[in-house]
Predict the structure.
Amino acid sequence: MSREKKTEIIDSLQQLFSRCSVAILTDYRGQSANEMTELRHRLREAGIDYKVVKNTLVRFAAQRSGREELFGFFEGPVAIAFGYGDINEPAKALASYVKESKANMTIKGGFLADRLLTKEDVITLSTLPSKEVLLARVVGGVQGPISALVSQLASPMMGLIAGLQARIQQLEGG
């Protein structure tokens, strides 16, 4: 590979490191070409970039991006799933693929913003609900007590109104 090509790959990886909100590193040993194609297709549909990388080149890109803590993951064959939106989407997609296809692929770890993720962290991340679901739960949790308070405050007023209406009907009828 020419020096210019290597520099281009390092620059490209550095941009991916800088742009992504989460990255998951995997060991793809034992995957056939068809399985890798299927995985890439699934991840691409979810808006996730999946790159098989040379360890020496990705180390340079990680160093330039200030991600030296990842160096321990760059042993053996490495592929990286770069996610840009919902932080648990890459973890869910990879975990789902491994589970459905019974693939030999293993998750090595990853990073989230400035936090290093272990294999267990990635698996936990894959089980979390999406951001929208979590926000809906928070709003529901806040809305429930407020609705109950409004109901309790309105209850005496409703009783007074019901009593007055009954008295008006009694006076009109009697």
Q: What stands out?
A: Residues 72 and 108 are 10 Å apart (CA to CA). DSSP finds six helices and five strands in the chain.
